[in-house]
Structures are given as structure tokens and as C-alpha cells.
What we know:
Elements: H1 2-51, E1 55-56, E2 66-70, H2 82-96, E3 102-106, H3 116-126, E4 134-137, H4 143-152, E5 158-164, H5 168-177, E6 181-187, H6 194-217, H7 230-236
Amino acid sequence: MRGLIARGRAWRATHRRAVRLARRLVLVAAAGVLALAVVTAASAAWIRGDARGRVFNAADVPEAPVALVLGAKVEADGTPSPFLAARLEIARQLFDSGKVKVVLVSGDHMDWDYDEPDAMRRWLVERGVPAEKIVLDHAGFDTYDSCARARRIFGVRRATVVTQSFHLPRAVALCRELGIETNGVGDDTVRRFAQQWRISTTREYGAGVKAAVDVLSGRDPVHLGHRETAVDDALRAG
Length: 238
């Protein structure tokens, strides 16, 4: 009988400890969710604030020396995906209308057989943009890197950044934080890809947090390197 009572007491003690641990875990999880929500809201507010009044359509955007076109997926046959082609079409319009003088295409060329910037250049040249007015950045691995390299490697001080509209406020905010006087033009034509658009829009919340962390940390791009004069040379070419 005494053994049974002892086992009962031990079980109750174990149960109480388990309940206390579960409560602590719930409180920690709730605090984590709350903290994440606060950080997400704060980063979204920063992005909206920095981009406010700096988002235009292609016809109304102020002139700038450079259009910075951010990379996106290139298909297996080397052609730009619809999202990327839409960005490039805006850049072509900006160049043809005299809104920009040089197009800086920035994308991923981490692997030898995957080259976003070269695909972007081919698309533009095939549609009448002079090759000498297109500058390639092969190390634009994300938006932060593209903006940081545009300023630190290519010396861009004023630009019009081009991407999809769901991505545009973050791109404008990052470029401005990294020292480029920036306006932006966003594409909405690929909204027809409703599922991909919806997924990408949702991902912007997490991307906004990453952008804030990148800015606060002041990290260097994945590849930095030496100053390049390609944009300056293209602008001087007349």
C-alpha cells in the first residue's frame, strides 16, 4: 500500500512538472510569435515609409541616369521568365523614352550554366537597346546585393529601380538606405500568374525582415570586388 501511495505521489509530481513545462513552452512560443509579428510590422512600416512618393509608372517617373533592373528566373533555354521579361520591357520603355541613359542589369550568375544578366542583355539588345548602353552585374544574388553593388561597385548615385510592384517598395527602400537616390517603376502585367503572384507577395513579409536585418548589420554583398567604371563609361559614350 505504501508503495502504491509513493508511486501516486511521484506520478503527481511528474505531472505537475510536465504541466509547468508545457505552460512555459506555450508562453515562450507566444512571446516568439508576438516578437516576430512586431518585427515584421516594423520592417513593413519602414519599407512603406521609405518608398512613399517614390513609386511611379513608366510615363511619369522622373529621369535618372540609370535603370537598375533586378534579376529573376531565366528558363532552361536561356530566355527570361515572364516576370523577368516584364521588368525588361519597362527598362526598354524607359530607355526609348529618354527617362534613363544606361540600363544596369543585376542578377544571379553563381553557376556557370545559369546566367541571368546575359539573358537580360540579349533580350534588350534584340529589342533595340544598344549593347554599349547595357551594363551587367553578375553578382546580384539578392535585392540587397544588387543595390549595394550598384552603389559601391558601379558608382550609381541616382537610379530608377525596376521590378514587380509587390517587390518594388522593398527595392526602393534598400537602394535608398544604401546610398542611391531612387525612384521605382513596378510591373503588374504578370498578375495573370495568380498563384505565383500570391506566393511572391506573401513572401515579401519575410523578405522585409531580412532587408531590415541586412541594413542594420551593414553586411557586405556576397561578392564585393573593385570599383568598376562600366556605368560611367556608358554614360560618357553619349
